[in-house]
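Put briefly, the fold is written as integer tokens. The lines below illustrate.
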Amino acid sequence: MPASRPRGWAASLAFGVASHIATALLLAPRRRGAWRRTHKPSTQAGDFLLEIARAGVHAGHWMAARATATQSDLPPDERLSQHIRTELEHRGIWSPRVDVTAVDGTVFLRGREADSIRADTIAGIARRVPGVVDVVDDIRRE
């Protein structure tokens, strides 16, 4: 398991996915009639399940980040990385394609981002987090 992944992330992910599927199943009978009139049957199930899976993955990741962000037994650099990830998630601009790693107060941002403004915003937020000495922006803008 990579060092950047929080403990218990798999359980949190499974819980998030399961809760969204259960919610969708409970709400499905109420929406079924209107949905059939507006969507083709062949794409309805696929789109619906894809949206549920996306929401579940996001919820599981958010829960895992929140659970480990409060743990005091994390090394300072890992706490700093978690703080930045939490701040990005809180602002709604977290991208799973961008890796955040801190070493001795220097934050390394690596990965790909299609939107250059979003990539610049991620780097700017990382610079403003208390405890950050420097930010190395290696995000490839595509």
Observations:
- The two ends are 29 Å apart (CA to CA).
